[in-house]
Amino acid sequence: MQQRKTMRAGDQPWVKWSLIALAMITTMLMLVIPLILIFDMALSAGAGTYWDNLTNRYTQHAIGLTLLVAALTVPINLVFGIFLAWLVTRFEFPGRKALITLIDIPFAVSPVVAGLLYLLLYGSNGWLGSWLMDRDVQLMFSWPGIVMVTVFVTCPFVARELIPLMQQQGREEEEAGVVLGATGWQLFRRVTLPNIQWALLYGVVLTNARAVGEFGAVSVVSGNIRGETNTLSLHVELLYQDYNVVGAFASASLLAGIALLTIVVKSFVEWRQARQRAPLDDLSDSR
Amino acid sequence: MSISIEGISKHFGSFQALRDISLDVPDGQLVGLLGPSGSGKTTLLRIIAGLETADEGRILFQGEDVTRLHVRERRVGFVFQHYALFRHMTVAQNVAFGLDVLPARERPPAAEIRKRVQMLLEMVQLGHLAQRYPVQLSGGQKQRIALARALSMKPQILLLDEPFGALDAKVRKDLRRWLRALHEEFHFTSVFVTHDQEEALELSDQVAVMSAGNIEQVDSPQKLYAQPSSRFVFDFLGQVNVFAGEVEEQVLRQGEAWVRLPQPPQAQALQLYMRSHEVHLQTMPAAHAHLPLRIDSISLVGAEVRLELSPIGWESEEPWEIGITHAQFNSWQPSRGDQCYAAPQVSHAIAQGADAPETIRWQAGEMDDPAAMI
Fold first, then answer.
1. What is the complex's ipTM, to 2 decimals?
2. Mind listing the domains of chain A with CATH numbers?
3. Interface contacts A/B by beta carbons within 8 Å
4. Domains within chain B, CATH numbers bracketed
5. CB contact set of B43 (below 8 Å; sequence gap of 6+)
6. Per residue in A44-70, pLDDT tens?
């Protein structure tokens, strides 16, 4: 027996299929083809040249510096993000709302502007920078400056992930823990952390992706010294300006690879988060 | 372990949640804090537990000042309104938590913890759910796990915040009975918060009625119901019928209705409060009262027949509600729209501007002949 379903808007096959086609074409043109082109260009002079380009001294240094920046930025913002989220969701104090808004500043400000601000403040002519200069500390145009702006640009990611979740979960579980005699660290380890772990990992993945790929702010404060203050993103630009297109794309393919890996990890974390939020209902009758 | 609350005050910003509260909870008693939302009852409970600090005042456990003692050190059991079970732990892990976080030298060996958890779960009759997660439990089951967890550290004081608030009527009744039994068995001192007057009256040895940060009255349920000390307590505890009128010598009058008082009152205007069981219904006016009423609805469900009535020729803010026995109902056979008369036996008079009620009793001779009664 055939049942006729009531038609809703968009139920006509031609609407559906033209929308799907439009989405597919856009995705191909905007995302997939450029991504393939990166690898195509990188390998256009053969695998040998590709390998040479990647093992080039300057490229190696750029990879190392990028990894160093990420390795410092991620833990710093992990700790900072947890503290900040804990602070604004577990305590009431004047200026709490303002602080939550302030967290978003790095998102709102263009990274180039952020870089310039740091340059003005910590550069050799800046009022903090000149004081540091007298004491032989140079932050700008060297790796500490790169780490500083990267930390600034990526600092909202972890806090932004945690704040809504911790707000929604409330403090009752922690109160229950402390009534039962748990110390501050035990509370964090056994109650808070397991509840936020997936959101935390998600924040870390985003922080890492941005730290590796950051260009604008870093380009202002790095000074682009090849083999010294060149991160991978800056290296791509430098090679391209040297008309070494294949080399530029070889380095770009590394960044694209990291991006793809990030997406895979991110999807996995999202899947786990969704599972945690609506968990186990289907298991309730399994015993 | 007895609890003494001495002169506790608490502000949240400019809002005063508690005003100079004092209350004694004797060892082994079950005391209910009853009040509407915003009356400060939960804040008081949290201050007793140490989850909130008071601006002023002291908390003593068994005569010992614990005001400055950290929550962790107070060793009370606390059952949260929304259970607050650790969602990522199994039921068994939840119940074991308190034992697991003990410092290594005080912590019992793992096998003993397991045994104790199993025992606690058997006590709440949920031993078979040990490996489940909180999301897989019903509200009543969560509540019982929360209780087992709170009792895991063998506290001498158990505090419960709206323990049965979110449960349906049947489960609630079971849990109440069961908590009462548990209390008899373990002899802890408990304080629980509720806005449900029936729950407070049924469960408690003593009830403290709170409103706007004050304790209005502390008494046994029987006394609280029979002799409320203020208008607020009267209104808050159960249905009440009110007759307001002007005093003319010994008679309180409003419109066509009047009540003759045993003694001439001092005040010019009075409100008479009467509980449903303190008023009789008759087919003819009584000698001491003329309160004509029309029957609006009849409810036959329950131990007695409840009639909802509206005044004829006088006014009342709320409709009157009076209960009669099924036997009376069967012999009288009233129907909706019928007229009848109220005859107060006992009444609580509140003079205009005053707060404390004064109980009035009519002697048999002052009322009319029993023949008129239904």
1. 0.76
2. 57-112+140-277 (1.10.3720.10)
3. 73
4. 3-227 (3.40.50.300), 239-372 (2.40.50.100)
5. B10, B17, B18, B52
6. 888 889 998 889 889 999 999 999 999
